[in-house]
From TrEMBL:
InterPro entries: 5peptide_repeat, Pentapeptide-BTB/POZ_domain. This is Pentapeptide repeat-containing protein. Residues 1-22 are annotated as: Disordered. PANTHER family: BTB_POZ DOMAIN-CONTAINING PROTEIN KCTD9. It comes from the Bacteria.
Length: 197
């Protein structure tokens, strides 16, 4: 996607064995297909998930703690209200996923990651290092970055007019068409009064 190249899992999801339970703490999950509601409201901790396809899965209110995702695709998943605490992403794609009302804390992109046509309504991202991430055609309504390192993060192709805090975007890549929307959001954030001459 644009300048971001994300490696897909080696196998198609149809060729992978299904995985229908919650991973145990410390478990390594490799070469599986995950679907359905088995991870909804689950706690996945100290796990490595690699070379997996997570398709049309319900992960609402799930907690991911000390998790590494490596060469995974999340497609058409519901992750509303999910909680990510100390997660590492490497070659991960989220496509057509709903992450509304989720929290991300201490998340790091150790490799490229991409969010394509995802919804981030009222999402909080804090203390994270997302320097190798790209967002494309995502809904970012009231998305907030707090104390994040975003140098080089690519947010081109997104409407930035309704971000909760524009000042958190320090170092991101924009295109010229986004500047006007960004200016309006900054005026609101700083409570600036603009008067006509």
């Amino acid at each position: 996607m644009r300048d971001t190249r994300v490696a897909l899992p080696a196998d198609d999801p149809e060729d992978l064995d299904p995985f229908t339970r919650v991973p145990r703490p410390g478990e390594r999950l490799i070469d599986h297909a995950i679907t359905g509601p088995s991870w909804a409201r689950a706690t996945i901790s100290d796990a490595v998930i690699s070379q997996c396809w997570v398709t049309d899965a319900d992960l609402a209110s799930a907690t991911f703690a000390d998790v590494t995702l490596d060469r995974c695709v999340f497609k058409g998943c519901t992750l509303m209200g999910s909680n990510w605490n100390t997660a590492t992403l490497r070659d991960v794609i989220f496509e057509d996923c709903r992450l509304d009302y989720s929290t991300f804390h201490a998340v790091t992109t150790a490799g490229p990651a991409a969010f394509v046509r995802c919804s981030f309504t009222e999402v909080s991202i804090s203390e994270s290092r997302l320097t190798r991430v790209a967002f494309d055609q995502c809904r970012l309504a009231q998305l907030e970055f707090e104390n994040c390192e975003l140098q080089g993060a690519d947010v081109r192709g997104n409407d930035l007019s309704d971000l909760a805090a524009v000042s958190g975007l320090r170092g991101v890549q924009l295109d010229q068409t986004q500047l006007l929307a960004l200016a309006g959001a900054l005026v609101r954030e700083l409570s600036i009064n603009v008067t006509a001459d």
